[in-house]
Design brief:
The chain is mainly alpha-helical and 129 residues long. It is 67% helix and 0% strand. The protein has six helices and no strands. It starts with a helix and ends in a 6-residue tail after the last helix. It comes from Patellaria atrata CBS 101060. This is DUF4939 domain-containing protein.
Length: 129
Amino acid sequence: MSSAAANTKTDKEHIQALYKRISELENEGTRTAKVKEPAPYDGKRDELRGFLTQVRIYHKRIGLTDDSERVLDASAYLKGDALEWFEPIARDYLENSEEHQEDETVEIFKSFPKFEETLKNVFREVDEQ
């Protein structure tokens, strides 16, 4: 075997080793801990603070930063009285262009803090700080 042929084989082995290492590095990022989704919220006043905290943690962990996407995501965890309250707002957002949406819908979907504030106003006890 000539030295050129030996070098070529070595080069191929080296390239294969590099591809293998690249694959290992790419897969490292997928081995992160599974992100727990928020528990559904049904409108119970004593569970609101925990729900909102879980949603904020979840959004931070998955890198969700767009306010309208955060509102849509959080609303997917509403059920019972909370869903009954929010469902008309969600339908308005999903079915109408912004110029045909209610003012409340536009405000809530433009600002996740506004969504939180509105949810608190509807479901939090009046004297809770």
